Amino acid sequence: MIRIWTLMSLLMLLITTNSFAQDAIALNKGDIVPFSGNLIKTEKLQEFFKSHQKLPLVEAKLELEAQRNSLYKDRLRDTEKQLSRANLKGNLGTIGGFILGVVITSVAAKAALESTR
Question: Of 20, 34, 57, 107, which residue has the fewest beta carbons closer than 10 angstroms?
Answer without folding.
Answer: 34
